[in-house]
Amino acid sequence: MLEASNNNELPVIPGKRYFTIGEVSELCGVKSHVLRYWEQEFSQLKPVKRRGNRRYYQRHDVILIRQIRSLLYDQGYTIGGARQKLTGEEVADDNSQSQQIIRQLRDELEGLLVLLKSSS
């Protein structure tokens, strides 16, 4: 679902466990108020809430947000269409998300390898 070209435009997801809404906003190219709205529209998107209702997103949330962004902004889906596509894919092919994560990790590692080779 995430196009390789779209992934190259977005920054690499750091190897952290939790991300603030500001960090996710930068990582996904979406403003924070849009992220809060998407939480209401997409039941799969449930960041952990801590002190003072602060949101903390995990890596799988960031990947899901990138999928939603791709569906809405790049592929032209409506909110309802994107919601239907995500729920349909989760039921039909649970393995797809794992493959996407593996693909993204491979891309990130290849990018790191290029950086390491260029610095030496």
Can you summarize this structure?
66% of the residues lie in helices and 8% in strands. The chain is mainly alpha-helical and 120 residues long.
Keywords:
66% helix; three-stranded antiparallel sheet; mainly alpha; 120 residues; globular
| Morphology | globular
Helices and strands, in N-to-C order? HEHHEEHHH
Radius of gyration: 15 Å
CATH class: Mainly Alpha
Q: Identify the strand order in the major beta sheet.
A: 1-3-2
Can you give the mean pLDDT?
84
**What is the third-level CATH name, the topology?**
Multidrug-efflux Transporter Regulator, Chain: A, Domain 2
CATH architecture: Orthogonal Bundle
Distance linking N and C termini = 35 Å
Task: Give the total of beta strands.
Answer: 3
Q: Hey, roughly how much beta strand do the residues contain?
A: 5-15%
Which class best fits the helix and strand makeup?
A: mainly alpha
Count the helices. How many?
6
The unreliable regions are 1-6
Number of domains: 1
Classify the helix fraction into a percent range: 55-70%
- Main sheet: strands, sense, barrel: 3 strands, antiparallel
Write the layout of secondary structure elements.
Blueprint: H1 4-9, E1 19-20, H2 21-28, H3 32-41, E2 48-50, E3 54-57, H4 59-74, H5 79-92, H6 95-119
Antiparallel strand pairs: 1-3, 2-3
Polypeptide structure, described:
The protein has a single domain (4-119), classed as Multidrug-efflux Transporter Regulator, Chain: A, Domain 2, CATH 1.10.1660.10. Helix content is 66%, strand content 8%. The chain is built from six helices and three strands. It starts with a helix and ends with a helix. Mean pLDDT is 84; it is low at 1-6.
